[in-house]
Amino acid sequence: MYPNRKTALRAAALLAAAVAVIGGCQRGVTTGERSPSTGPSSPGCPTTLARAKAAVQQAENTNARWNGPTSGPTAVSGKTVVYVAQTMTNPGVAGVTNGVAEATKVIGWNTRVIDGQGTPAGLQAALSEAVALRPSGIVIGGFDPDLTSRQVAQADAAHIPLIGWHAVEAPGPSRRPKLFSNITSKVQDVAKASADWIIARSDGDAGVVVFTDASIPFARSKSELITRELTTCSGVQLLAYENIPIPDAGSRTPQEVSSLLSRFSNTWTYSVAINDLYFADAAPALRAAGKQGDAAPFNIGAGDGDPSAFQRINSGQFQAATVPEPLTEQGWQIIDEFNRAFSAKPATGYTAPVHIATAANSHGTTTWDPAGYREAYRRIWGR
Questions:
Q1: For residue 168, what is the DSSP state?
Q2: In this predicted structure, what is the pLDDT of residue 32?
Q3: Are 212 and 224 in contact (CB under 8 A)?
Q4: For residue 54, what are the domain limits?
Q5: Is residue 156 part of a domain?
Q6: Rounded CA gap, 176 and 293, in Å?
Q7: 231/237 Cα distance (integer angstroms)
Q8: In what residue span(s) does the Periplasmic binding protein domain sit (predicted)?
Q9: Measured between alpha carbons, how far is 224 from 6 in angstroms, rounded to an integer?
Q10: N or C, which end of the chain has less CB nearby within 10 Å?
C-alpha cells in the first residue's frame, strides 16, 4: 500500500512507489486520499500539460500518409503460415488474424489459426501442434515466447521462422528469443500517448486507476511506462494498480471495479488499461453504481483498438479513447516480413506511428485502418 498523503505526491516519490507496485503487487494498490485540486485554470504541471496537449493533438491526426516499406522481394509461392494465438478472447490477438488471412489470400498462401487458450499449458500444446504441422512460418500471437521455450527451440531446429506480434517489448528482429521480427507499435509511444491523453484531458488534475496483465512482459512494461509518464504531472495521482490476467478479465474486472468504486468514489476520475477489453468488463459494474457512460471515470485503452472498443467510444459507453494498433495493417506486415524471411532478406523493423482514436475523429468507424499499406504491399509482392 502507498501511505496516505494530504498534500500532492511529488513525481519522484510517485514513480518510486509505482515501480515498486509493478514489481510485486498482485491486486490493487492505493495512493490514499487525493490532494486538493489545483483546478483547470491553474494546473499543477503547466509545462508538462502544454507538451501533452501538443502531443495528443498530433496523435489524433487521421490524415498521415503511409510511411512504411515501399520496396522488397516479390511474392514467393506455395507457403503456409500458422498463427498461434495467445487467446482468441483477446480482441487484439484476434484482430490481427483478420489481417493475416486477408494478406495471405492476396499473396496466394494458406493460413491456419491455433488458439492457445491463454494458459501456459495451452500455449505449449498449441505451439507443439504448429511445429508438428511443419508450416513455412509460425506467428507467436501475443504471448511471451519464453513460456514455450522448448517449442521455440524445436521450430528453430526445424528451420521454421518465427514472427511475433506483441511477443516481446521491442519491434523488429529478436535474438533471445529468436524471432525473425516482432510486429508492434513502440510500447514507449503507446504508453506515453495514453498517459498524455489523461494529463491533457484532465488539465493536469486526475485520480487514475491502471489495469494491466503482469503475466505478459509486453503489457507489464507498458503499464510501468504509463505510470512513469503520469508522474511527470504533479496534479495526477495513481490511485490503484490492478493486475488482472486477460483470460480472467471477464470474471475479475467487475468485482475489482466495484471494490474501486467503494474505495475511491468520485476521486477516481480516469482509467488506463493495457487492453480495451477491461472496459467492456468494467461497464456493468460502473452502470450498476449509477455511473454515466460519458462521465467519469473517463477510460482510455493503451491498445488494441478492437471494434467493440470503437463502439463504446462512439456511443459514449464507458470508454472515451483508445490508442489503437492498426491490427489489419499489422497482419499484412506479418505476411510481408515472412516473405522477406523466405527470400533471405532482412526484416523491415517497421513500426506504425502512434494514434489516438476518439468519437470526434473516428467518424463512426470501428477500427483504425490507415490508408496506403494495402497498395504498397501489393506493389512490393507484384500482386
A1: S
A2: 40
A3: no
A4: 11-62+188-322
A5: yes
A6: 44
A7: 8
A8: 82-336
A9: 25
A10: N
Q: How many CA atoms lie within 13 A of 55 on its CB side?
A: 23
3-state secondary structure of 365: coil
Any domain includes 73: no
Enter the pTM of the model: 0.81
The pLDDT value recorded for residue 64 is 84
Q: The C-alpha cell of 155 is what? A: 521450430
Spatial distance between the Cα atoms of 170 and 349, rounded to a whole number of angstroms = 10
Answer yes or no: is 70 within a domain.
Answer: no
Predicted pLDDT of residue 303: 83
What is the pLDDT at residue 266?
94
Q: Which residues of the chain have pLDDT under 50?
A: 1-42
Q: How far apart are CA 144 and CA 333, in angstroms?
A: 20
Closest C-alpha to 161, from 173, 146, 148, 149: 173
What Å distances lie between residue 335 and 80, 84, 138, 274, 292, CA to CA?
10, 14, 11, 25, 42
Residue where the block lists cell 509505482: 18
* CATH number of domain containing 231: 3.40.50.2300
Residues 84/141, Cβ–Cβ less than 8 Å? yes
pLDDT of residue 183: 96
Contacts of 381 (CB under 8 A, 6+ apart): 74, 75, 106, 107, 336, 339
Check residue 43 and give its pLDDT.
59
Report which of 155, 143, 139, 152 is spatially closest to residue 97, judged by C-alpha positions: 139
Cα distance between residue 243 and residue 214, in whole Å: 6
CA 125 – CA 139 distance, rounded (Å): 15
Residue 164 lies in a domain: yes
User: Is 246:213 a contact under the CB 8 Å cutoff?
Assistant: yes
| Same domain assignment for residues 261 and 285 | yes
